[in-house]
């Protein structure tokens, strides 16, 4: 079973007002049609915070409308005083995962610090995730990668029951010559069994632009963490390209793996994490 673990849904339906006009749209039904064309599958609908902010209504409603094939990953402000209560509310509305990202963060940098995922309010979010059976996803940029990865072990040990997914290979710079910047810090987390790593089309695009093969990165991730802790997501509507092109790139990137490992990366790991039928 193929599972796209990182699909950014965007609709022009006025029932879901956008904070910023989206350049691209992809509804839940269009995503599922693309998966059907590829031989069926499922997906994790990841809140597009640049479009909808912290209003997670569309991903939640989409997951409720398609309970066998979609799961909702919601974005919240981990520093907010009521963040833990927000997690409880989202869980009651059907959320499967929480995603945190640095405030004001983008590829150009933002304020330093790890309070957004490791401060007192954010730790209450982790506790709420543990209480409600939700996983945690951390969006890591290149500019804050090192301080984030250095702090991850302490938070994981405080909440050992919460599965953790690091987005976009935690911004390890595999598009640069080895040793890849950040690879040592990421590999140091391999002993923490709750830590999983997501590889996306964003990583593949950077590698291809640098003349490198995405399969090299995927093989390294599987060798370091095991295929049962590596998962793939398209990043559709955020990274350029059609969903069909992203599916083709994913299959090419796992071509060097065994059939069992390839199946885990392309769907098995995500199915287990998010409670989707294999």
UniProtKB/TrEMBL annotation:
Any GO MF annotation of the entry: hydrolase activity
Pfam families linked to this entry: Amidohydro_2
InterPro entries named in the record: Amidohydro-rel, Aro_Compnd_Degr_Hydrolases, Metal_Hydrolase
Coiled-coil stretches noted in the UniProt entry, renumbered to this chain: none
Residue span(s) of domain Amidohydrolase-related: 3-276
Alphabetized UniProt keyword annotations: Hydrolase
Entry keyword Disulfide bond: no
Record PANTHER family: BARREL METAL-DEPENDENT HYDROLASE, PUTATIVE (AFU_ORTHOLOGUE AFUA_1G16240)-RELATED
Protein name per its UniProtKB record: Predicted metal-dependent hydrolase, TIM-barrel fold
Gene source species: Pseudonocardia thermophila
């Amino acid at each position: 079973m193929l599972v796209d673990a990182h699909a950014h849904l965007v609709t022009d339906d006025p029932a879901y007002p956008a904070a910023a006009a989206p350049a691209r749209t992809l509804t839940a039904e269009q995503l599922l049609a693309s998966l059907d064309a590829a031989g069926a599958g499922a997906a994790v609908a990841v809140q597009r915070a640049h479009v909808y902010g912290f209003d997670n209504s569309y991903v939640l409603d989409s997951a409720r409308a398609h309970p066998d094939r979609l799961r909702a990953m919601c974005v919240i402000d981990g520093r907010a005083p009521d963040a833990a209560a927000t997690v409880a509310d989202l869980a009651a509305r059907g959320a499967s995962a929480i995603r945190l990202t640095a405030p004001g963060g983008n590829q150009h940098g933002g304020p330093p610090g790890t309070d957004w995922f490791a401060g007192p309010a954010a730790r209450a979010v982790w506790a709420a995730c543990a209480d409600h059976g939700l996983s945690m996803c951390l969006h890591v940029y290149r500019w804050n990668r090192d301080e984030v990865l250095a702090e991850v072990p302490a938070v994981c040990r405080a909440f050992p029951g919460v599965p953790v997914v690091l987005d976009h290979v935690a911004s390890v710079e595999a598009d640069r010559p080895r040793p890849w910047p950040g690879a040592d810090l990421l590999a140091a987390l391999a002993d923490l069994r709750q830590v999983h790593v997501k590889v996306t089309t964003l990583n593949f695009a950077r590698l291809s632009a640098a003349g490198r093969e995405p399969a090299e990165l995927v093989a390294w991730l599987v060798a370091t963490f095991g295929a049962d802790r590596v998962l793939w997501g398209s990043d559709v509507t955020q990274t350029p390209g059609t969903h069909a092109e992203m599916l083709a790139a994913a299959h090419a990137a796992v071509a060097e793996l065994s059939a069992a490992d390839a199946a885990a990366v392309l769907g098995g790991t995500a199915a287990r994490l998010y409670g989707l039928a294999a």
